Amino acid sequence: MRIELQQAAIGRGLGASVPALDLIVDGPVPVVVAVQTDERPMLVSMLLAGRVRCDTGRVLVDGTEDADRLRRRTALVDTPIVAEPGAGIALSTIVAEEFSFAGLPTSGRAVRRFLADHGLADFAPLPVRALPPADRIRLFSELAVLRAGVDGIIVTSPERHGGAPAEWFGHLVDLADRGVTVAIVTDYATAKILIGLGARDGATPETPPDQEPAETETDPEPLLAPTDPPESDLS
């Protein structure tokens, strides 16, 4: 899946909540989107997931404007306010709720098995806040792609939970390898680290394969040595 923001903005002028953005999010590696201010990561995430409409510009999914299709194919992961699990709620409760969204059995046995498969059985009765940052991002990303038709996730502000980006980035790389389109909306400092780890900058246009820059070549030798102009040209 390919998501494009073309001069997409929320609000207008200097007071715009999201100034006009040009972004491209697609595989095969996680794409980082660097933004600043408190609310902008949430708003940009919602734009990328088709949860809010832009006031100017447009949002494309695979080249067409189709907000319904974009909503069906994407999931917000740990997005503050709109898709953030309550810190004090037991992890098993959150997993059961996600199972219900995915149309899966929500029994305690099914939840315990899922958490055990992900090495998190001991956290089942504990509040969500007890999860280490890397496990939190890994688990909620996996839960998001359980939903039928979802092949893209937008992870919002993962840096707010602490921990080194290298500890959780690898799992998002694995998801991208599995064909999931992964966007990470984060601050500039974390974005720089993630790009160093192999993420692509969503604000940097891709170079089509047939337009890859040519290797540097030395100046070719002239085919003919310069010759003096004919006398008639000197008059």
Give the SSE map.
Layout: E1 3-10, E2 18-25, E3 31-34, H1 40-48, E4 56-61, H2 67-73, E5 74-77, H3 91-102, H4 108-117, H5 133-144, E6 152-156, H6 165-177, E7 181-186, H7 188-197, E8 200-201, H8 231-234
Parallel strand pairs: 3-7, 3-8, 5-6, 6-7
Antiparallel strand pairs: 1-2, 1-4
Helix pairs in contact: 3-4, 5-6
Defining traits:
single chain, 235 residues, alpha/beta, five-stranded parallel beta sheet, three-stranded antiparallel beta sheet, 8 helices, globular
Number of helices: 8
**Beta-strand percent range:** 15-25%
Average pLDDT, rounded to a whole number, is: 89
Distance between the termini: 67 Å
Are there runs of 5+ residues with pLDDT below 50, and where? 208-235
> What portion of residues is helical?
25-40%
Instruction: Give the overall form.
Output: globular
Structural class: alpha/beta
What strand line-up does the widest sheet have?
Answer: 5-6-7-3-8
What's the helix-strand series?
Answer: EEEHEHEHHHEHEHEH
**Tally of DSSP β-strands:** 8
Biggest sheet, in brief?
5 strands, parallel
Q: What features would you describe in this structure?
A:
The protein has 235 residues and is of the alpha/beta class. The protein is built from eight helices and eight strands. The protein has helices spanning 40-48, 67-73, 91-102, 108-117, 133-144, 165-177, 188-197, 231-234, and strands at residues 3-10, 18-25, 31-34, 56-61, 74-77, 152-156, 181-186, 200-201. The strands form two sheets. Strands 5-6-7-3-8 form a five-stranded parallel beta sheet, sandwiched between helices. Strands 2-1-4 form a three-stranded antiparallel beta sheet. The protein starts with a strand and ends with a helix. Mean pLDDT is 89; it is low at 208-235.
